[in-house]
Design a protein that fits this description.
- The structure is a homodimer.
- Chain A is an alpha+beta fold and about 600 residues long.
- Among the domains of chain A are: about 10-65 and about 75-140, Butyryl-Coa Dehydrogenase, subunit A, domain 1; about 155-280, Butyryl-CoA Dehydrogenase, subunit A, domain 2 (Beta Barrel); about 455-585.
- Helix content of chain A is about 55%, strand content about 10%.
- Chain A is built from 18 helices and eleven strands.
- Chain A has helices at about 10-20, 35-50, 55-60, 75-85, 105-120, 120-140, 140-155, 280-320, 340-375, 380-410, 420-430, 440-450, 450-470, 475-505, 510-515, 515-545, 550-565, 570-580, and strands at about 65, 70, 155-160, 180, 185-195, 205-215, 225-230, 235, 240-245, 245-250, 265-275.
- In chain A, a hairpin with a 5-residue loop joins strand 4 (about 180) and strand 5.
- The longest helix of chain A is centred in the middle third of the chain and has 37 residues, at about 280-320.
- The two termini of chain A are about 45 Å apart.
Chain lengths: ~600, ~600
C-alpha cells in the first residue's frame, strides 16, 4: 500500500520563513505563530495519514453504489467523515458566527492539501460543501444563512454545485434546467444535471444542492441564469427535516478515477428551490467563488503529485536494480537502488522541485485571498485574480505529469493497481478538467485577466519580480547566478509574450488565443521560479543565521538550483511557440482534419 | 462509442510518395506496387474497424477472468481471433516455408498500426506470438522450427515471452528461475514469472512460452541466463498435443489498462523445457528480437494517439460550445463547434502533426529493418539500431501525451469511461513501460547506441540531414524558410547535445546520463522534423505535378509547417537542460529526498 507523510515542515517553512505571515497586517495573521500553525498542521497531518489515507485505495476499489435509489459510499468513509466532523475541520476557515473557527484561508489551504493528498475523492465531500456554504455566505439572506450555514459548516448537511448539463459544460448559457416561480416565493426546478460531485451519499443528514437554472421569460443565454438552493430534504420551520424533495440520483458515472466520490446524474422534477442572490445573477454568484474553487483544484494537482512523489522516492530507495555507472553504491547487495541512476534522479528532482515550488505558489496565492477578503486589499485581489488561472491550469497540468513520472519510477509495478500509482494519475487527471478545463483557464488568463483594470495587475507582477531581483542582487554571486539571472531571463520571456499579444492580438485575437496555453505554462514557470528564488533567499538567510537544521536549507537551495537550471528553460520554448502566431494553428479548414 | 478509421491513404502516401518503396533495391520491395499495398491496407483496415474496434471497449470493461485455473478472454475475442487467423494476418511477414506470406516488415508495421489502434489489448495476443516465433526462427534447431513455427504462424498456437520476476525487471541478471538439465536433454524449469502478456487464455490450442532461466552452476548474473521453450501442452512425436505441462496461471494482474489482455503470473513447477539457442546465451537470443519488439511498442504509442485523435476531431466538430472570437461560425445554431477555438485547434494540430510524423518515422524505421534483414545492409542496420530507442521512447511518451490531449478535448465527458477516451490514455500508458521502460531506452541511446561502431551511425544520421537540406535548398523560398531552416536549427541542437556528451561524459558519465531522456526527446523531434521535411517535399512535388487531390497535399504542407513552427522549438529547451549537466541532478544525497 502507498505511503503518505504530511509535509508539515515544508508548509511551516513557507508560511513562516518565506511568506512571514505573522509580520503581515492582514487581520488574523498576527495570531498565526509558528507553534500554533505547527500544532494545527500536525493534527491535520495525523488525520490525513491515519484516517483518510488508509481509505484512499478502498475508495478507488469499491467506488460508490446506487441501489434502490440509495447511494452508498465505500466502507469506512462514513466513520472517517464523522471523525473529521468531530474535529471541526470542515469549518476551519468559516465564520465563528455560524460555528466555524475563522482561521485564515492560507491555513485552510495548507490543511486542505494534506486531506486531498491522502484522499482526494473523500475530501471532495466536504470541499464541495465548503464551496456551497461560501456561496450562501456571500449571497444568501440572513434567514438562509441561519438555516443552512450552521449545519453545513459542521457537515451535518453537505453541499453540491450543479452547473453542467449533458449538452453544456463550459457554455452554460445553453442550459435547459428551468425554475418556475410559485406563489409562495419558491421555485419549481426541473431538469437534469450531470457530473455532480458528491451528488448523493450516505454520510450526511441532508444535502443542499446549489442549482443553476433559467427562469422562463428571462434574458437569453448566460444572462438569464439564476442560482437556487434545493435541499434533498425540505426543512421545517423548526429546523427539523421534512419531506423528501423531488431530486433523485439517476446514475453514478463510471469514471477514470476519484471512484470514492459519487459523481451523480441528478434529476430535478419540480423540486422546491429557493432563489440565492438576485434573479438572473446566478453566474455572478458563481463567479465570486470561482477564484477560491479554482485555487482549490490547483491544490489537488499539487496534492496528488506530492503523494505520488513520496512513493516514488521510497521505491527508488528500496528497489535494487542495476549498478551506478560511477561505481557500485551497494557493493554488498545484489544491485544498487534505483535512486543511483541519473535519469531516476532527474525524474525525482522534476517532481520534488515542482511540488515544493507549487506549495509555495499555492500558499502565496492563498495569502492574497486573505488580504483581499480580510483587509480589502484591492491589489492583492487583482493579482490573485490574475494568477488564479495559472494556479489552476499550471499546477494541475504539471501535477498530472508528475504523477505519471512517479508512476514511471515503478516500472511495470506502477501499471498494476496494487501499487496505488495508477490511482494517483487517474485521480489527478480530473483536476485538469473540472472547475473550468485548462484550455478555458488559458482563455480566461489571456482573454480576460491580462487586460483587467488596464493591465494593471500583470504590470504589478512584473514590477514585483524586477524589484525582487534588484533588492537581492549583488550580495552573493552564486545566488545571483543560480537564482536571480534565470528568473530575470524567464520573466523577460513572459514580458515578450505579453508584448506579442498586445501587438498582434488587436489585429487578430487568434494570435493571442493560439498561444494561450503556452502563455499559461510560461507564466506558471515564472511564478515557480519566483517562489524558488524567494525560498532560496530564505534558506540562505537561515544558513547565514546559523540554523541548526542546515541540511534542510541546503536541500532547499539544491532543489531550487535544479528548478532554475532544468525547468525554467521551458519559458523560451513557450515564447517561441507563442511568437509563431496563429497562422499555422488556424491554417486548416475543419474538414481538413 | 468511439470511432476508428484506418489511415490507409496516409500510409500509402508515406510508402509510395515519401519512402518510394518500389524504387528500393531491397528484395521484395519491387512487388509492392501501390495497388497491391493499397488492397492489403484496405483489407486490414476493414478488419480493424469492423471486427477489432467494436471489441475494444468490451475488452476494457469485461477484462479477462481466471476461474478454476482457466483463463477466459472477453466475449467476442475468440471469434475475432479466428477471423484474423482465417485471413492469414498473423503470418503476414513470416517465411513461406512455415506457412507465412513473407511480406516485408514495413507492410507488417502499417497493418499492425491499424490492428493496434483498433484494439491494442487484442492485438497483443498475436503480437507476442510473432515475437516468440521470430525467436524460434532465429535461434531454433530445424526440428524446433518444424515443430512450432507452422502452428505459431497461423496462431493455432500462441506464444509468450517470460522475462520479468517480481524482484527484477530491467536487471535480469538477478533472476531466480532455474532450469535443471535432465537425462533426455530437456530441462526442468522452476520459478515464478510475472507480467506475462497473453500469458494464458482460451483462444488457441496451445501456448508456447519462451522462458528465461538460469542453469545451476552457470556464470553469475546476466551471463548465466538461457532461453527455453516451455509449451503449455507437451507435443507428441506425431505433432499432436500430449499431457499438460507444469505451468499454471496463478493470477491475472489488475492493471490500469489493456484489460482485454491477460497479464499473468505464471508458475513453473518442474515444467519440461527445451533449450532455445545456446546455453547461457539467452540474453543474446532476446536481443536479436529487441529492435523489432521495441519498434512494435513505438507503433502502439502512435496507434493509441491516432485513435484518440480521430475521436477528438469528431467531437470538436460536433460539440457546440461557445462562440468563435472572430465572429459566429454557426450563426443559426445555439453555439459554434469546439473546433473554432484556437486552443482546441492547437491541441488538434499537436495531435495531427505528431501522428502523421510518427507514422512516417515508424515506416521509415521499418524499411531499414527490411534493408537490414533482406539485403544485409549494415548501414541500415546500424542506423535503425540507433533510432530504435528513439522510436520506442519518443513515440510512446509523446503518444501518451497526445491521448491525454485528445481526452482533454472532451472536457468532463472525457473523464467518463463511456466516451472511451480514458481507455486510450490507460492503454497507451503501458507502452512507456514495457519492452524496456523509457528511461532505459534513453540509457540505451546515450550509453550504448550513440557510440556504437565509433559513433558511425549518428554521424551518418547528421550527414543525411545535412545532405537532405543541401539537395533541396534554394528551389522554393517558402519551403526553405518553413521546413529546411527549422530542421537545420533543430539538427544543430542535437549535434550540440552530442558534443556536450562527448566533452563531458568522459570525465563524468553522469553528465551524459542526466541528459539522456532530454536527448531522446531532442532526437525524436529532429526525426519528426526530418519526416515532415520529407513529407513536405513530397507534397510540394505532387502539387507541382498537378495532383488531382490538391487538398490532401495542401493539408500535409500546412500540418508540416505547424510541426516545424510549434513543436520543433522544443529542441532548444532539451539542449539547455542537457547543457546544465549533472550537478543539479545529482546534488542531493538519497536521504535528502
Amino acid at each position: 500500500m502507498p505511503i503518505y507523510t504530511a509535509p508539515t515542515k515544508d508548509a511551516q517553512f513557507i508560511l513562516h520563513e518565506v511568506l512571514k505571515i505573522t509580520e503581515s497586517s492582514v487581520p488574523g495573521y498576527s495570531d498565526l505563530e509558528s507553534d500554533f500553525t505547527g500544532a494545527i498542521l500536525e493534527e491535520a497531518g495525523k488525520i490525513s495519514t491515519e484516517v483518510l489515507h488508509p481509505l484512499n485505495m478502498v475508495g478507488d476499489t469499491e467506488g460508490c453504489t446506487l441501489e434502490n435509489g440509495v447511494v452508498r459510499t465505500p466502507k469506512g468513509f462514513k466513520a472517517a467523515f464523522d471523525q473529521l466532523r468531530t474535529g471541526g475541520w470542515p469549518g476551519l476557515d468559516m465564520p465563528e458566527q455560524y460555528g466555524g473557527q475563522y482561521m485564515p484561508y492560507v491555513i485552510g489551504t495548507a490543511v486542505g492539501e494534506m486531506f486531498s493528498a491522502s484522499n482526494q475523492a473523500f475530501t471532495m465531500y466536504h470541499g464541495l460543501t465548503h464551496g456551497a456554504a461560501s456561496a450562501i455566505l456571500a449571497h444568501g439572506t440572513d434567514a438562509q444563512k441561519d438555516t443552512y450555514l450552521p449545519k453545513m459548516i459542521t457537515c451535518d448537511w453537505t453541499g453540491t454545485m450543479n452547473l453542467t448539463e449533458s449538452h453544456c459544460g463550459t457554455d452554460l448559457g445553453l442550459m435547459r434546467t428551468k425554475a418556475v416561480p410559485t406563489d409562495d416565493g419558491s421555485y419549481k426546478i426541473s431538469g437534469e444535471k450531470i457530473f455532480i460531485s458528491s451528488g448523493d451519499h450516505d454520510m450526511s443528514d441532508n444535502i443542499i444542492h446549489l442549482v443553476l437554472a433559467k427562469i422562463p421569460g428571462g434574458p437569453e443565454g448566460i444572462r438569464g441564469v439564476s442560482l437556487f438552493i434545493v435541499p434533498k430534504f425540505l426543512i421545517n420551520e423548526d429546523g427539523s427535516l421534512g419531506a423528501r424533495n423531488g431530486v433523485t440520483c439517476d446514475n453514478i458515472e463510471e469514471k477514470m478515477g476519484i471512484h470514492g466520490n459519487s459523481t451523480c446524474v441528478l434529476n430535478y422534477e419540480g423540486s422546491v428551490g429557493y432563489l440565492l442572490g438576485a434573479e438572473n445573477k446566478g453566474m455572478r454568484a458563481m463567479f465570486t467563488m470561482m477564484n477560491e474553487a479554482r485555487i482549490g483544484v490547483g491544490m489537488q494537482g499539487l496534492s496528488q503529485a506530492d503523494a505520488a512523489y513520496q512513493n516514488a522516492v521510497e521505491y527508488a530507495k528500496e528497489r535494487l536494480q542495476g549498478r551506478a555507472v560511477t561505481g557500485d553504491e551497494n557493493p554488498d547487495g545484489p544491485a544498487d537502488p534505483l535512486i543511483v541512476h541519473p535519469d531516476i534522479r532527474r525524474s525525482l528532482m522534476d517532481q520534488k522541485s515542482f511540488t515544493e515550488g507549487a506549495r509555495a505558489f499555492l500558499l502565496w496565492g492563498s495569502s492574497m485571498i486573505d488580504a483581499s477578503h480580510r483587509a480589502d486589499d484591492e491589489d492583492a485581489e487583482g493579482l490573485v485574480s490574475l494568477l488564479t488561472p495559472v494556479i489552476k491550469g499550471f499546477l494541475t497540468d504539471q501535477g498530472y505529469d508528475m504523477t505519471v513520472q512517479a508512476q514511471q519510477v515503478f516500472g511495470g509495478h506502477g501499471y498494476i493497481e496494487e501499487s496505488g500509482m495508477s490511482q494517483y494519475t487517474r485521480d489527478a487527471r480530473i483536476a485538469m478538467i473540472y472547475e473550468g478545463a485548462n484550455g478555458v483557464q488559458a482563455l480566461d488568463l489571456v482573454g480576460r485577466k491580462l487586460g483587467q483594470d488596464g493591465g494593471k495587475h500583470v504590470m504589478a507582477f512584473f514590477a514585483m519580480v524586477m524589484e525582487f531581483g534588484k533588492t537581492n542582487k549583488g550580495k552573493d554571486e552564486a545566488f545571483d547566478r543560480d537564482f536571480l539571472e534565470p528568473l530575470k531571463a524567464a520573466s523577460k520571456d513572459l514580458q515578450a509574450a505579453g508584448m506579442y499579444f498586445m501587438q498582434n492580438g488587436v489585429k487578430n485575437p487568434n494570435h493571442a488565443l493560439a498561444g494561450s496555453s503556452d502563455f499559461l505554462h510560461l507564466f506558471g514557470h515564472v511564478c515557480l521560479g519566483l517562489m524558488w528564488a524567494r525560498m532560496g533567499l530564505a534558506a540562505r538567510e537561515a544558513l547565514e543565521g546559523g540554523a541548526t537544521d542546515a541540511a534542510f536549507y541546503e536541500t532547499k537551495l539544491a532543489t531550487g538550483r535544479y528548478y532554475m537550471a532544468r525547468r525554467l528553460p521551458a519559458t523560451a520554448m513557450h515564447l517561441a511557440r507563442i511568437e509563431s502566431g496563429a497562422d499555422t494553428v488556424m491554417a486548416l479548414d475543419a474538414d481538413q482534419f
